[in-house]
Amino acid sequence: MFETLKKQEKMAFIPFVTLGDPNYEWSFEIIKTLITSGVSALELGFAFSDPVADGVTIQASHLRALKHATMEKNFQILRAIRDYNPHIPIGLLVYANLIFSYGVDNFYAQIKECGVDSVLIADIPLIEKELVLKSAQKTPN
């Protein structure tokens, strides 16, 4: 789906939302409003306890979301977003520890089921990239 964005000859607007901030109901309403307003794609984050690769505003959103965030709730909202709009490109911005603690193969199987188009891992050590790449390539779109 991001290939479609590349072919367009106009600027793309891709807002970022931390799932679960301030809660999952509001996150979903915010995302629906963004889609209805015509965003080009979505970049969605999973809350993490030590979001060192982000600035203070996004760090604060992680801390608010962590009060009730779970991986299962993240996958539920991703499915709801995909049901709401099957065509909007969805990219995830996540931290490596979330993927490794959930299980790399399980993570990629879930995001495939949810219709996620891309994953950006903010802090993956280069030495670990092959583990993630192998799992991602096993679950093609």
UniProtKB/TrEMBL annotation:
Functional pathway: Amino-acid biosynthesis; L-tryptophan biosynthesis; L-tryptophan from chorismate: step 5/5
CDD domains per UniProt: Tryptophan_synthase_alpha
Membrane spanning residue stretches: none
Keywords, alphabetical: Amino-acid biosynthesis, Aromatic amino acid biosynthesis, Lyase, Tryptophan biosynthesis
PROSITE patterns named among the record's database cross-references: TRP_SYNTHASE_ALPHA (PS00167)
UniProt EC number: 4.2.1.20
Chain segments annotated as coiled-coil in the UniProt record: none
Catalysed reaction equations from the record: (1S,2R)-1-C-(indol-3-yl)glycerol 3-phosphate + L-serine = D-glyceraldehyde 3-phosphate + L-tryptophan + H2O
Highest rank taxon of the organism: Bacteria
InterPro entries reported for this sequence: Aldolase_TIM (IPR013785), RibuloseP-bd_barrel (IPR011060), Trp_synthase_alpha_AS (IPR018204), Trp_synthase_suA (IPR002028)
One protein family per Pfam: Trp_syntA
Record text on subunit structure and interactions: Tetramer of two alpha and two beta chains.
Similarity annotation: Belongs to the TrpA family.
Name of the protein: tryptophan synthase
Species assigned in the record: Streptomyces kronopolitis
